[in-house]
Amino acid sequence: MKHTAQEIIDQYGPAYFGRMGASISHDIKNCLAIMNENAGLMSDHLMMAQKGVPPDIDRFSGIVQRIEKQITRADDIVKSFNKFSHSMDKPEQQIDLDEAVGLALNLGARIIANKSITVTHTRAADKLYVNGSFFFLLFLIWSILEKITENLASGTVLNISSMEDENKQVCLSFQCEQPFASDFGLQSSGQTLDLFQAKMVLGDQHNRADLIFGN
Amino acid sequence: MSDEKVLIIDDEQEFTQALAERMTTRGMTVSTSSSAIEGLKNVEEHSFDVVVLDLQMPEMDGIETLKVLKKKNPELQVILLTGHATVEKGIEAMKLGAMDLLEKPADMTTLTEKIKKAQAQKMILVEKKSEERIKNIMETRGW
Predict the structure, then answer these.
(1) What whole-number distance in Å separates Cα of residue A159 and Cα of residue B1?
(2) Per-residue confidence (pLDDT) for residue A215, from 0 to 100
(3) Distances in Å between the alpha carbon of A135 and those of A11, A78, A85, B3, B134?
(4) Does B68 lie at the interface with A, CB-CB under 8 angstroms?
(5) Residues on chain A touching B84 (C-beta within 8 angstroms)
(6) Is B74 helix (H, G, I), strand (E, B) or coil?
(7) In terms of Cα–Cα distance, which of A156, A160, A143, A165 is closest to A13?
(8) CATH code of the domain made up of A5-86
(9) Is A47 exposed, middle or buried (0-12, 13-18, 19+ CB in 10 A)?
(10) A interface mutation test: which of B11, B21, B23 has the most A CBs within 10 A?
(11) Which residue of B has its CA nearest to A44?
């Protein structure tokens, strides 16, 4: 049974948006916590200076650098979340596949880290484009990633690479050394595959899965 | 009262470093671990009054770590620190024996107060345990 984009959004959109939002807010809180402690350190040093302890310029400089680093980190996180929030603006557009993979990985970085799995991303030499909804593409990539990493052991490295296959079809390949879950009958990604006229092809060894786009 | 011996377990190393420095300035003896596994090893090798524990960490999360810590060291006081405290997690942590749950970014005055309270609580528990042990020895040996 084919599902419309609206049906899929209604069914899975809020859950995906909520999961990413929770993960991102946690990361921002971590940045704020580091900034808070470093601002507190600065305050401690200032108080000591007021009591006559000569200020240590190098330490002060180190604290400032740490705060600046966290501002950059938080800014990157917020930029990703902003892009994600705007991913539903257009029902269909031309999407840079590697940009979508990068964003999906940034959004779920904390969830992936908590699984103790490393995900690497190898970009295609030339830009590859997919037509469709940006939000659904992010959701599709994330659904596959979650399914694949479900049973992977801690420390596993998973590589995602984009390419054009022998039939000139745009393809996203998920590959790792150990076999992953063989069942790709995940309802949510199955329905989203239809929206991109895409299919999943699982390798014989179950350690490679290719997402092949139709158009 | 002696200095509070505190262990901070959090995978955000820049956070633990800055927090440890501030707590040291306030007279506490502070160690840090960047993972639950490292933290559990640290607790086995050294004596601490209080563990300040992050709720979300790779490999083993705060709740799992709390379970192991309390099983091995029931007197050890654990304060959970989290980026997003949900009511459910808070209740679960308290049921498992956590002393408190604070949300990041935490206020240093509040955290210091909680640590002092936790150390006092640990001392009461240790003293109580010692009294029970002495009572038991006296009863079994008939002194």
Answers:
(1) 54
(2) 55
(3) 14, 17, 9, 53, 67
(4) no
(5) 22, 25-26, 29
(6) coil
(7) A143
(8) 1.20.5
(9) exposed
(10) B21
(11) B22
CA atoms within 13 A on the CB side of B143: 6
Return the closest-CA partner of residue B81 out of B108, B64, B97, B105: B105
**CATH number of the domain located at residue range(s) A91-212 in this protein:** 3.30.565.10
The CATH code that applies to domain B5-141 is 3.40.50.2300
A-B C-beta contacts closer than 8 Å: 62
How far apart CA B77 and CA B85 sit, in angstroms, is 19
Using a pLDDT cut of 90, give the percent of chain B over it. 65
Closest CA to A177 of A103, A113, A117: A117
User: A67: distance to nearest CA of chain B, Å?
Assistant: 10
Q: Which amino acid does the sequence have at A55? A: P
Tracing tokens 């704020």 back to the chain, one arrives at: A32
Torsion of CA A181, A183, A184, A189, to 10 degrees: -90
Sequence spans of domains, chain A: 5-86, 91-212
Closest CA to B32 of B83, B48, B75: B48
pLDDT 10s digits, B96-115: 999 999 999 999 999 999 99
Contact A185, A194 (CB under 8 A): no
Chain A, window 3-22: residues with a beta carbon less than 8 angstroms from a chain B beta carbon: 22
Is the reported ipTM for this assembly greater than 0.90? no
Question: Does B38 touch chain A if contact means CB atoms closer than 8 Å?
Answer: no
Do A33 and B25 count as a contact with CB atoms less than 8 A apart?
no
Helix (H, G, I), strand (E, B) or coil at A116: coil
What does the pLDDT look like over B8-46, one tens digit per residue?
999 999 999 999 999 999 999 999 999 999 999 999 999
Q: For the residues A65-77, what does the mean pLDDT come to?
A: 97
Predicted local distance difference test score (pLDDT) of residue B42: 96
With bands split at pLDDT 50, 70 and 90, how would you rate the model's confidence at A189? low
What pLDDT sits at residue B63? Answer: 92
Kindly report whether the global pTM for this prediction surpasses the value 0.90: no
More confident site: A33 or A201: A33
Instruction: Round to whole Å and give the CA distance between A191 and A187.
Output: 6
